[in-house]
Design goal:
alpha+beta; Nuclear Transport Factor 2, Chain: A; 6-stranded mixed sheet; 6 strands; 25% strand
């Protein structure tokens, strides 16, 4: 009995510590987005120009269009763009980090469950040797919340595979602030990376469960459950979308 009580206490302490760490990193990330240092990406690389720019712009147009479509939730079928991404592609924004095609596209497949709409107000593309830099303004509306505007810089890192450029990583810098990492924030950067990884898995798991429950009760309309029960579940699930 003593062992069981001690184990329960340890689990409670671990769970409490994890929740406190998650809450603290969320607050710190929000503080960084408002008051943190700005990105210096523009000073590190020079954009291509002249005939090289024309050639690269044309060759990379499918990549640019694919990324824009993912953020606008207009890609109903992602199978036709899988070849544009490397197998170990990484997506990062201030709150999530996804690695690999499966996790990458799973995150983007959840956007219609979180966002009511996402429209592009500004989309300026600059091509670099191994990067595509996109300055964008986007109007976003979560379900049950007011619409808002988000300005960000997308840094799309490219890798040459069998003579074809593929997307190696997509970094979404909100409001011109770089994503926290050990390189720019040695004291807390490593913790920020762990936080984003775990947060991505939490989001995928929680919204995945909600989607499965919602789909189950949708299918149950044709089975034994009465309409009142189905409607109650639909209202409950809809009220949590975007939370």
């Amino acid at each position: 009995m003593l062992f069981i009580r001690a184990t329960k206490r340890l689990l409670l302490v671990a769970a409490g510590g994890t929740m406190c760490a998650h809450f603290s990193m969320t607050l710190y990330t929000q503080y960084h987005l408002r008051h943190g240092f700005k990105s210096i990406f523009e000073n590190q690389f020079q954009p291509v120009s002249g005939t090289t720019e024309e050639r690269i712009t044309k060759a990379r147009q499918p990549i640019v269009e694919a990324v824009q479509a993912l953020f606008e939730m207009t890609h109903k079928d992602t199978s036709n763009i899988l070849a544009l991404f490397s197998d170990d592609v990484v997506y990062e924004d201030p709150f999530v980090r996804c690695k690999g095609k499966a996790e990458f596209f799973k995150c983007f497949s959840l956007l219609p469950w979180c966002w009511e709409f996402s429209t592009t107000d500004q989309f300026e593309v600059t091509h670099h040797k191994d990067y595509i830099q996109i300055a964008q303004e986007r109007s976003i509306k979560f379900f049950n919340r007011k619409a808002f505007q988000r300005s960000s810089v997308l840094l799309i890192s490219l890798d040459l595979v069998d003579g074809q450029e593929k997307i190696k990583s997509v970094e979404d810098q909100w409001s011109g602030h770089p994503i926290l990492s050990p390189d720019n924030s040695p004291r807390i950067g490593w913790l920020a990376v762990v936080f984003r990884k775990l947060n991505a898995k939490r989001i995928i798991l929680s919204y995945g469960i909600q989607m499965n429950i919602y789909s189950y009760f949708q299918n149950s309309k044709q089975n034994d459950l009465d309409d009142t029960t189905v409607q109650l579940v639909e209202q409950t699930m809809t009220s949590h979308r975007g939370d």
